[in-house]
Amino acid sequence: MPLDFQPMRWQLAIHLIDSVFYAETHTVSVGFQESARALQILERLRAAIEAGYSQRSLLSKPHLVLLNPTFYHQRMKLVFIFEPN
Prior knowledge:
The chain has 85 residues and is mainly α. β1 (58-59) and β2 (65-66) form a beta hairpin. The protein has one domain (11-80). A two-stranded antiparallel sheet has the order 1-2. It has helices spanning 11-25, 36-54, 69-80; strands at residues 58-59, 65-66.
C-alpha cells in the first residue's frame, strides 16, 4: 500500500533509529512503559551495542559507527527480527 508522504511512512524509521539511541540515552521518544516486550527488545539491542564497543566492532565517538558488518548481521540485526511470544 503506497504511503506517499504521510507521517506514518516515517514511523518505522524513527522507531529503529530511536532504538539505537536508547543504548546511549536509556530513553526513547515514545512511551514504551506499558510494553514489557518493547523494553526487553531495547535492552537486548543495548547489550548488543555494548558488546560491539567491547569487541571493537562498533565505534561510539563521534557517533555510532559500524566497523564490522559481520557483527551487525550476527548480533544487532537479530534483535530486530520478529520473535513471537
